[in-house]
Amino acid sequence: MGSGTEGLITVLGGVALLLWGLRMVGTGATRALGGELRTVLGRATGNRISALLSGLGFTLLLQSSTAVVLLVSGFASRGMMTVAAGLAAALGADVGTTLVAQVLSLDLGVLGPLLALAGLIVFKAQSTKAGRNTGRILLGLGLMLVALQLIGAGAAPIRQSPVMQQVILALGDEPLLALLLGALLTLVSHSSLAMVLLLVTLARAGDMPVEVGFLLLLGVNLGGPLPALIATLGDAREARRVPLGNLVFRIVGVLAVLPFLGVLAPWMASLEADAGRQIVHAHTLFNVALAVAFLPLTGAAARLAGRLAPPAVVEDPLAHGQPLYLRDDRGRSAAQALNSATREALRMGDIVFAMLDGSIEALRSGDTARIKAIQRMDDDVDSLNEAIKFYLTEISRQPLTGEQSQRCMTVFSFVTNLEHIGDIIDNNLMDLASRKAKRHLTFSDAGEREIALLHDRLTENLQLALNIFASNDQDLAEQLLDDKRAFRDEEVRATHAHLERLQMGYAETIETSAIHLDLLRDLRRINSHITATAYPVLAPQGMGAAAAHGRVRRNDDVRTRYGLTGRSARPLRR
Question: The whole model's pTM is what?
Answer without folding.
Answer: 0.58
